[in-house]
Design a protein that fits this description.
The protein is an alpha+beta fold and about 230 residues long. The chain is about 15% helix and about 45% strand. The strands form four sheets. Strands 2, 4, 5, 6 and 7 form a five-stranded antiparallel sheet that branches. A five-stranded mixed beta barrel has the order 10-11-12-13-14. Strands 1-3 form a two-stranded antiparallel ribbon. β4 and β5 form a beta hairpin. The protein is rod-shaped. The termini are far apart.
């Protein structure tokens, strides 16, 4: 009968931890670090990585019982701690492991150079998963919504897009001439019109036909284009 290595490793770690609690032992820097890392993994899984762990421990401590392990980490912040509570012959002790953390962030990154004042399009960015001290506030969850924004400064290829780099601007502006697309079944007709409202992607706006003067309602589908059905 073959045993899967992963469950076996878990069982060994569990037995080790139980033996620490029940029968005592010696806590040194390496063991304190191992306990802290296990506690972080138990609490946050792979959403966080420990960059470094500092243990305030001059010399190993012989203890009778490991009473409990407490974690003091707020998700999304770069620092935290794990506290190990021991019962020794001289009484209770607390050993703290100070942590530098990196959090998993799904971020939009420029896939090409974007010039200042240029409207940002979905194909100009890529979604990447990185580990950072703090996840940036990007303000845009769906890349399709990027067409509602222009760059306030040059954004070089590979740089993470931040909310402060972008300014929200409508795709059509009141008084502008736009391309009106009338679509019904297999029939599609295009003509020019004057838009009467500011509109972002997906907004319903009014347009006045340049040919008939009739006011229609349509949905903004791209920069300078309104779809009427």
């Amino acid at each position: 009968m073959r045993c899967s290595p992963r469950p076996l490793t878990y069982v060994v770690k569990l037995l080790l931890f139980l033996s620490l609690i029940s029968f005592g032992g010696v806590l040194d820097r390496e063991k304190a670090r191992e306990i802290a890392l296990e506690k972080v993994k138990e609490e946050f899984g792979n959403r966080v990585r420990v960059e470094s762990a500092s243990i305030i421990l001059r010399e190993p401590i012989r203890y009778k019982k490991l009473e409990r392990v407490e974690i003091s980490v707020r998700e999304g912040t770069p620092r935290g701690a794990v506290h190990i509570y021991l019962l020794t012959e001289k009484g209770a002790r607390r050993i703290s492991v100070l942590l530098d953390l990196r959090w998993r962030c799904d971020v939009l990154v420029a896939a090409e150079d974007i010039e200042r004042g240029e409207r940002v399009y979905p194909w100009q960015v890529a979604l990447e998963r990185v580990y950072m001290k703090r996840c940036p506030i990007q303000g845009v969850e769906n890349p399709e919504e990027l067409v509602n924004y222009v760059a306030l400064r040059p954004i070089p290829k590979g740089e993470i897009l931040k909310k402060s780099f972008l300014k929200r601007e409508p795709l059509v502006r009141r008084g502008e001439e736009v391309n009106v697309i009338f679509r019904k079944g297999n029939l599609e007709i295009s003509f020019t019109g004057e838009v009467l409202d500011n509109g972002f992607l997906g907004d319903v706006v009014r347009v006045r036909s340049a040919n008939t003067g009739k006011i229609l309602r349509g949905r903004v589908v791209s920069e300078g284009s309104v779809l009427v059905k």
